[in-house]
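Shape matters. As here.
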Amino acid sequence: MFVRKKKLRRRKVNKLEAYRYRLTKLFRVHQSFVILLLVLVVLVAVFYRVKSLNDLPVDQAYMTQEMQKLKAVKFNEEAIEQIKALRDSNVAIPGTDLPKNRQNPFAE
């Protein structure tokens, strides 16, 4: 009985070694093709994952809940009026005017 089990184990081990040898031989012969195939499979998996995440349905309840969390922007109307008044006033800025007798060197 024990002799048969040992022989069966040896046969299984020999079969496994034979399969391993065949696979390593096949990989050595077609190494670039196998690597290219693996890269292609990874790229397809990534593309499929991105596409599935991109096609998620819109949850309208979630969207309205998140929009309610946003605060509305309020502008200070007095500040806007003051800025408009400053823009419209004709106050000459002394730093930008040249004296009358001086010529602008950048003018052509």
